Amino acid sequence: YMGTRAILPLLALLEVGLAFGGLSGDQGWHAVPLFRKPAVSTGQLELVEEGLNVLRAQTEPFAIVSAVGPTRTGKSSILGRAFFRGEHENIFEVGSGVTSHTGGVWIASQPVEVKVADGSTLRVLFIDTEGFSGVGGITSKTYEANLFGLVYLLSSVVIFNTMFPVDASTVASLNAHASHALSMLQALTDSGQLVQKAKPRLVWSIQSFNIYNLHNSGMAATDLLAALRNASRASGAGIAVLGGEAASSSTWLVERLFEQQELVTVRRPHASDEVVANLAKYNSTILSADYLHDADQVRAAAMHDLKAVHRCKEAGTVLTLSECTPQPLVGTDFVAQVSLWLKHGYILDRSDLELDTADEAETLNRLRERNRKWFDEQCATLNEELRTKFYWYREESADNAKLRDEAVAAVDKMMKGFHGAALSRLVESGVFWKFPGKGAMLVEAQADQAMQRCKETLDGTRRHMEGWTASHRATKATPAQELFKKLEAEAPEPSGGLSYKLVAEDSSCFSNAGGAGDIHRLHLGNGMTLEACAEAVSKKCECGRGFEHDKGNDGYCGCGMAGTPNTDCTESDDDFSYGSARYIMFNPACLNQQSEARKRALEQANAAAGGEDGGGALAAAVVKDYDAPKKRRQVCFDVYD
Questions:
Q1: N or C: which end of the chain has fewer CB within 10 A?
Q2: Of 36, 30, 31, whose CA–CA distance to 104 is shortest?
Q3: CA proximity to 73, closest of 144, 193, 178, 164
Q4: What helix, strand, coil percent values describe the chain, rounded to 5?
């Protein structure tokens, strides 16, 4: 796939020469603001002196190459990799999330000198713009209409950057922007400010393009552009590439506004999603050779037949090159022209005034409620994760203390990913496309609030688990027999009620005897208060001295089985059950039966061992499971990049 059409841009690239092979010396290239966003989203863009000074400094003919297009499509990246590859390839800051990174309009602080086809040298300034339909900032259709219109007037070449795949909606979007430029030209004409300049050229860059779609259809980029213009010569193949949405609007305004249109396909920069999402961190040397080749094609297309900013001698608005005798403008004259365009060319997109405010309020309220629920779920998951890690690393050691600190840092980092994750969810919803600015601001505000609430929750869990770790060690150091003797000494008169004492919080009577399952715990039921649970234990002499109650788990009540190693609920004394509490009971009514059960168990153990009871391990006794077993908790959590 290297036909004549593919070779021609390379020939144009050779004409440019080595001027873009890296910027010679450290000349302080950086981006400065040229237009600032208005305080009100439907207001006029504001000129910035720093950017105007860059223009005023141009005392020789110069051209302007600008990049526009939807948000997060790689405009800043393609400008850097195509025209500033090397030390300054990140001259325009590149975003790494889902939000719009560039705001307003930015211009390179100095021009780059290039050789054009006739062998002369031309200075070129590069402009980067805020993406359309951006997230994380105040935007409107009026703002975007004026931004595109002004960039159109400023530029010698406009690079319209989108993502693969492209279909009728992409073409409609470009056509809509073209109509805004026409509206601005009309507004200037009506105010007596004729735009006497030749039409700029359009380079349509489609990023992350799957080149095999073209190969399989036997098409070149020019054929694809023709298909997008609804040209009959490629309509069948165009549908093969683009699907059933290939047909575009019958009125292709782009041809009326731009001298030439060229489509350049740009393949994926790297196989790794992480590299693609964080391009600013990576040097071009590790990027795909195909991507860099395609970036060179974008450069060649932009530099082909490049013209300086000018005023035509002939009267008329945006003339063709053949109709225009250009008179190059120096920087001061150009700034004066730009100021008039800004003053008299303002247009208003009427759709910004036609929103159904009732529908907007209802939609944003539903979004607010969905977000609140989602944030709470994410925080609960992180909270459970933190508890689990503290349990894993409960033993006191320097290594475990470090691991607990790392667990705290890990959930804190994931919590700070709430912003990005919530905005990703917003982009996938219909609300984003209806109310991008307000939806994004709502999500940002909710994320801040959710992070504050979640931080308080996680801090509380950390303190709770630190306390549990300390109390767990103390509990293990105090034999249950000591507690039982104390209870026996403090026991009330028979008519004075039950005698039981809290042994440990976040602990249960779970047992897993020899891996045979939870066979030494009796399940007494759910829906009980602590007092009712203690009463049920006192009447069931198959219970040993230990029992548990879990108020948060539907009032669950269970006990250790008498005559087993779990009689005091200590067979699995490292068990952690958040919210459950373990008790020991002095129950005179069952003492005889409990003693008999222990005696029988000892005899069985001795018989199995062939010897006397020397305090050896008791044999596991298989008992009937009285009720449904207690559910084990599971931990699931999202990981944020």
A1: N
A2: 36
A3: 164
A4: 50, 15, 40
Q: Tell whether omega for the bond before 61 is within 30 degrees of 0, i.e. cis.
A: no
Length of the chain measured in residues: 641
pTM given for the model: 0.53
329: tokens are 């403008």
* Mean pLDDT of successive 10-residue stretches along the chain, which has 641 residues: 36 38 52 85 83 96 94 84 86 53 82 85 93 63 89 95 83 86 89 89 91 81 78 35 36 81 92 85 90 94 92 83 91 95 86 59 83 90 87 83 90 85 71 71 85 90 80 61 61 61 85 72 92 92 91 90 85 76 84 66 57 40 36 50 43
CB 124 within 8 A of CB 168: no
CA distance 145 to 181: 7
Q: Measure the N-to-C terminal CA separation of the chain; round to a whole number of Å.
A: 38
Q: Distance of alpha carbon 14 from its chain centroid, rounded?
A: 41
Side-chain-facing half-sphere of 420: CA atoms under 13 Å: 15
Type and span of the H or E element at 148: helix 141-154
Buried b (16+ CB within 10 A) or exposed e, 566-591: bbbbbbbbebbbbebbbbbbbbeebe
Q: Which of 450, 572, 460, 435 is nearest to 510 (CA)?
A: 572
Which token pair is 638? 């999202």
Phi then psi for residue 250, to 5 deg, are: -70, -20
- Amino acid sitting at position 179: S
CA angle 129, 132, 135 (to 5 degrees): 105
Nearest to 79 by CA among 144, 156, 20: 20
Structural contact between residues 422 and 375, judged by C-beta atoms closer than 8 angstroms: yes
Does an H or E element contain 312, and which? strand 310-312
- The rounded distance, in Å, linking the Cα atoms of 367 and 565 is 54
Beta strands in 475-595 (DSSP E): 499-505, 521-525, 543-550, 556-561, 580-586
- Structural contact between residues 300 and 10, judged by C-beta atoms closer than 8 angstroms: yes
